[in-house]
Each structure stands twice: as C-alpha cells, then as structure tokens.
Amino acid sequence: MGIGMAQAATPGNTASQQLVQFDIPAQPLDRAVLAYAEQSGVQVFFDSRKLAGLHSEGLRGSYSAEGGLRQLLLGMPVRYHFSAPGQVGLERLEASGEAMELGATHVESNRGADWVYQTPRSTSVITREQIDKRPPRHAADMLEETAGVYTAVDQRDPGLSVNIRGVQDYGRVNMNIDGMRQNFNVNGHQQRNGVMFIDPEFISNVEIEKGSQSGMGGAGVLGGIASFNTVQASEFLGPGKEFGGRIRAGHGIGELGNGTYFNGSGVFAFGNEVGDVLLGMSERHFGDYRAGTNDADNLGTNIRNKNLFPEAWQDWLESEVGDMSSVTRSQMIKLGLNLPQDQRVQLSYMATDTDSKDAWTYQDENNRYYYMRSASNDITAKNVALDYSYTPDDDLIDFKAKLYYVTTRQDRWNAGSTASQASGNYYGPYQDRFQTDTWGLQLQNTSRFYFGQHDTLSFNYGTELFQDTFKPSSERVPAPNEHTNPYASGATPQGKRVMASVFGELKFEHGDWLTLDAGLRYDRYRLSGQTGFTAFMLPTGGPAVDPEYVSTDLLFDVNQEAGRFSPTFGIGVKPGLDWLQLYTRWGRGWRPPSVTEAFMSGKPHGGGNEMVYPNPFLKPETSHNWEAGFNIFKESLFRDGDRLGAKVAYFDTRIDNFSFLDINVDLPGTAGVIGTSLGRNAYQNNLETTRFRGVEYSLDYDAGGFYSQLSYTHMIGSNDFCSKQLYMGGAQSRTQVGTELRPVDFGGVIIMLPFPVYQVGGDPALDARVMCGHVMGNASYMPADRGALTAGLRFFDNTLDVGMRLRFSKGNGENLNAQGYNQIDQALWPRYEVYDLYASYWMTENLNIGLSMENVTDQAYFVAMGDANNLSLARGRTLTGMFEYRF
C-alpha cells in the first residue's frame, strides 16, 4: 500500500470514548489495521511496507476507538498519534525506539482491491495504479482488463459506454460519477445508446458491481453498476499535512508518439480538521494516428470490401486514420466542511468539455479510400453535487445524503447529403443539439446490531429519486422526397422520465465463515412526452370504390406509470478453510423504457434512407439472474508476505421483454405483403427470452518483487430476436363486398360499367405475424471471449516497476469472410493479441517518471462492439512518457 490511508466506510468518526464492537480475527497487522478502520470509522495513515512481518492476534470486544487501537497494537513496535478527530497515523519503531525512516516509497501493489477477493458477490475494482500502467487515451481503456466488463468503442467518440456481462444501454448499467447517474444518449442505432464523459486524470478508482442490486444505485439496473470515483482531498492530506497535490504531464515520444500529444493535469488540496478544498484541472490532446499493420489477415476479407478492392484496402490499412483530432478540458472543485457532532458537508463541481469529429470512409475514382468529415461535435458535461454525512459513534446511525444535477449537451454540425439536388434526396448542412438534464436525490442509512462475540447484523435502507429530461433541437430541412414517405423529425425526442425507489438490505455475519444477505426494492416510474409520425392508410368507414391511401398523422400524448418489487438474496460460506469462500446469489431486476426508446423518431444518424419510428407501447424489461462462484485469498503462500487472490464466477442473466432495435418494421396501414421495409426501424420487445451467461476469472498474485494479474471472460450461447412485424398493429385489408355501376365515357358515348366496391377493415392475422432476425445493436451478437495478463517486477526497494501486458481475444468469427452487409461491420469481432510494455520509476519519494509502449508488435486490431459507421482500427505501436510530481 505504500504510504497510504485506511479509509473507513464512514469517515469522520472521532476517537471518543463511546464504545465500538470490534471483531477482528488474527491476521497480518496491515490487514488488521484495515479491519480496524472499517469497524471504527477512523482514518488510519500508515506505510504497509513498514508493517510487513508483524502479525496481530486480533481484537474482539467493546472498546473506545483509541482503546481498541491500543489493544490491537499491544506488544507491537508501532506507535500511533491522533492528529485530528477521526484521523490517526502509525509509525513503526526501531529497536532503539526511534521511528523508522520511510525513504522513497510508492504504491507497491493492488492491496486496496484485496477486499474484492473476500466479498461473496461479483465485484471488481480498477485502482489508480492499474490505470497508470497504461495511460488511457480513451476512457474505455481503463476497463479493458476487468473480467465481465466490455466497452463499445468508437475511437473518434470520447463517450464511454459500459457493458457488463453482455448487458448495456439505456440505464441497464448504472454509469455514475461519484454516485451521479450519467444518462445522456443520442441514438445512432448502433452500439452506444447511452454514454458518459469522464476524464481519466481525475479518477481515483472504478468499482464494478455486477448483476441486480438492492442497494443505492440499483433502480432500473439489470447489468450492474459502474462507479467512477474521483479524487478526494483526503488522498493528498494527512496528519500534520495541510497542503498537498500532484502535477502530471505526458506526451508521445518522437515518431512513435503516434498522434498522442500533451496530456496532463494538476490537482491541489489544502485543509485541516475544519474542512478542505480540492482544485483540479486537466487537458488532453490527440490527433491522427497510424494503425497497426501486422496480422491483418485476422480482420477477415470483408472489412472495407477487402475481397473486392484489395489495393484500396491495403492503402487504407497503411494510411493514417483521419479526423481523429480531439481536445478535452476538465475542471474540478470540491469544498468540504467538517461540522460538529461528526457531520460533513461537501459541495462538488466537475465539468468536461470535449471536441471531436465524425468521419465516413469513402472510395474515390482510383479505388482508394479516404475520410470525409460527416460531423463535428462540441460536448459539455457538468456535474454538481451536495453531499451530507452524519456518522456519530452510534451503531444505529450511518447516514448519507446526496442531491445532484447533471447536464450533458452535444452541439453537432452535420454535413449535407451527398445526393444531387435534382434527385430530391438532397439536404444541406445543419446544426442540431441534444441535451439531457438529470436531477437526483439519494438518502440512505446503515444500522448495525451485534449479538455476542460472533454475530453481526447490518441493515442498509433508503430511497433514490432521479428525473431525466431530454431537450433536442435541430435546424435540419428535410429533403423533398422525405415528405412523400412516412416521415418524422428529430432523432432524440422531447420527454421526461421520473424514477423513484425505496430499498432495504439485511446482511448477517456469523463469525468469519457465514454471510447471508437479503434485499428488496420497489421501483416506480412515470414516462411522459409527445411523439408521432405520418403513415399512409386506407380510409375506414363505409364501402368505397378503389379506396386510396392518404397521409395520416398518428400522434401520441403519453403519460404512463407503473411499479414493481425486486428481491435479491445471497449466501457466502467458508467451508473450514480461512482462504476459501463459496458463494451464490440470485436477484430480480426491472427496467422501464427510456424516453428515447419510446418516443424517438426521425433519421438515426443524419443520412441515408433509414428512419426510426417511435413505440410508446414498449413494455418494461424484467430480469432474473443468478451466479455461483468462489473466492480465494491467501497470504504468505509461497513466501513470507506474498498474497494470492482469485475470483471465479458463473453467471446467468435472463431478460424478458428485452428492448431491441428492429430494423425491418411495417407501419399501420400495411396491407398484404409485409417484411420488405428494411430501413424502417423501431424499438420492440423481444418475444423470446434474452439470455446472457458465461464464466469470468480474476487472479492476482503479489510477492513484492514480482506480481501478476489475469482476467478472462468466457461468454456462452446466442440469442434470437423475434417481434411483431406490424409493431403497432394497424394492418388493413380490402375485401370486395359487391359492385357499383359507374358511367364511363368512351369517345363521347357513356356506358355504365360495374366497378368493384371494397370494404376496408383490419387484418388480425397480419397483425399477429411474427418475424425474427431483424436486429441491430450491441446485443446482436454475444460478446467474444476476452482476457488480459499482466506480469511485472519491482527493483530498488520497489521504486522501479517494469512489466508487460497481454490483451487478447479469440474473436467470435461471425461474418468475417461472408457478411451480408459489406459496409456495416457491427457483427465483426476479429481475434487479436496485443502486447504492451510499461515502466515506472520513483526517483524520489515525490517524483515519478513513467514510460508506456502500447501495441509493441504493431498488431492490426480493433476493440469490437464499436460503431460500424465510424469503424477505425486501434493505434499501432505507440510510445508515451509521463511525469508526475506529488507534494
């Protein structure tokens, strides 16, 4: 842990004389101190290297915070000092009684994530140390080594979309920054229907909770929760230290910089027992880059029509990826105030502004590919939160509250149509804007009860409320021909969705071998807004001769609400071995439709003949998931002080009424032939059960001078997507009910001839027709197996850290050489093996220099599930350096 801090779950408690019920088993002292911090609520600052080799006999019973620490350290060559209320520092003493010199230190391992391997549920933590080993260019890079987690990456789009165990989009995964939900989305009918914007420079760690959740943040969640936790002032302050921070600056090196320009940040903190202030700023610049060229045959024959135009494809592979320039600037302010009686208030503000481009690949007359800009984006995301906590030395009270506001706005310039004006399909360049505003309120409390020396019961309960409001606008003038077809405007509609939730979760622990938990939540939503489109329908009513189709406006004023209870249950058991824990979990989830799914209408990405129609009759999704797994956590396994952590889990998530984008729907008014409307899209509920299952593996071994981590995800099976072809019904039929004599003029001679008379009516059989396979989006194909292996060595008292990382996927093989849509590559997931090297050297206690070489073998690859419309290969061999100074 290096010089670090054992952060209690409820910081701010004082070392008063009120009693705390401790239950800390015998274990290495550094682990015992972490358990003390968790149970007492005291922040403990210590250097884990200086506690190496010391073993604690544990602590059980009722003590004051200071009395418990004194007893825990009894007979140890360690002294403590309470420098502020709720903060204590530890120092190891030499035989002479003098404190040991610390020297140059750094974070020496992932011990801050050890709790993952001792927790009976599927969870993962990405530490700051892991992030720094491969400085992320795209925020998705931070997640690539985490089992069970995927990301849909468009290298041009800095937006991050998190996929957990195959599930993503529209809030199925709660993506949040410090608990603030990031619900922005602009529908492009591809792989990212919901993105967030987070600057990796401000990340302290990322926590991933997988599956349905009964606690805070679980409302509307089917896949899990991805929490991006930002830095706090306490990370830079400590006993007797009232000012601190860090400065980071990085850049690509020479020609191997490969489009990586200045990336840096500054974070400054100052404060004392009264309060603290954190200020941060960051700036990131990227440009055009060259992709890798080796092992290009892994990409198959169909990407960019390789099988038809091999020379053009080879030129595309070897040329720079164009229009990749982007600039991101971020600011952060956090103001914390410690109030009397263990209360704390914190006001935080974070803003990120990013500029990026969209580009399409075109083919010129010389059979060469080139990039043409299709859009320019200016995106601003702002987060404001007010946090309050009350954590007295009372087992019944551990209260937290949060009020927050998130607004994300995208201003986009769009290129005009490439069609000629005479064709009737031309439209000019235009501006549009998409904005999502989210208000949120969170209240929760945890009460703890102790029974004897071995049994503990905790009860976490609270409420969560959030409201999403969508505010789109567009200056687009429709092409003339668009008025002669079923038409609607605006790809992201105006509307509002409110969700409210109450929840409670009980957790019972018997000694250190049995853990039981059971939770129940009730979610309720209200969806309101207006939407509609035009359809061509036959007039209904009395019989008519040769009825003609007429343009009919179908408008929907929606105001609907519903609610549902969702339970969870889990059990963890240690079968007589301290280092082995078996666990299983079961849970239900419920997600009502989002505004975009229900109300969206218009063109999904500004061009072509595609059209998306609303479906205000979408049903909520329901899920049931279970998992079974085991944890291993063993210290001093092969040598004194080493540790092994392992986590393996089988998961199975089944979703009923799964909402997917049907790319071939028929509209009301259809008669006779159906299923020929490719390009008319609408969200539908899958009539089949949608299932995501697999096995995930995580392994972490650290022996001080050597360490390694392994993660791997194996997905199983595939899904069918079936729905009503006439997604809103309204099929019509013409039935002849007789004839009618009408005059016909033949050269001045009037003759009465019989004409058929038709009765227009509904067609229930056509309405009931089901078709399958017309699906587009991230759920079309199960994510491919993917893994990562890291191995490293530490030298010179752990100040020099060098290592290698392997990222690999066997691919899914779907349509690599025989794809139906040559220009739509969303189904492709080629295999790849990518090697990275890194080195980090702490020259002094405060100064670090890092190097990272990504894609050492210059592999031609891309991270799959990306947007086909902006398919871009990942960077080739890239070398960057990073300077960091802490003070």
TrEMBL record:
Keywords: Cell outer membrane, Membrane, Receptor, Signal, TonB box, Transmembrane, Transmembrane beta strand, Transport. Residues 42-93 form the Secretin/TonB short N-terminal domain. Belongs to the TonB-dependent receptor family. It is a multi-pass membrane protein. Its main location: membrane. InterPro entries: Beta-barrel_TonB, Plug_dom, Secretin/TonB_short_N, TonB-dep_rcpt-like, TonB_haem/Hb_rcpt, TonB_Hb/transfer/lactofer_rcpt. This is TonB-dependent hemoglobin/transferrin/lactoferrin family receptor. It comes from the Bacteria. PROSITE patterns: TONB_DEPENDENT_REC_3 (PS52016). It is found in: Cell outer membrane. It comes from Pseudomonas fakonensis. PANTHER family: HEME_HEMOPEXIN UTILIZATION PROTEIN C, TONB-DEPENDENT OUTER MEMBRANE RECEPTOR.
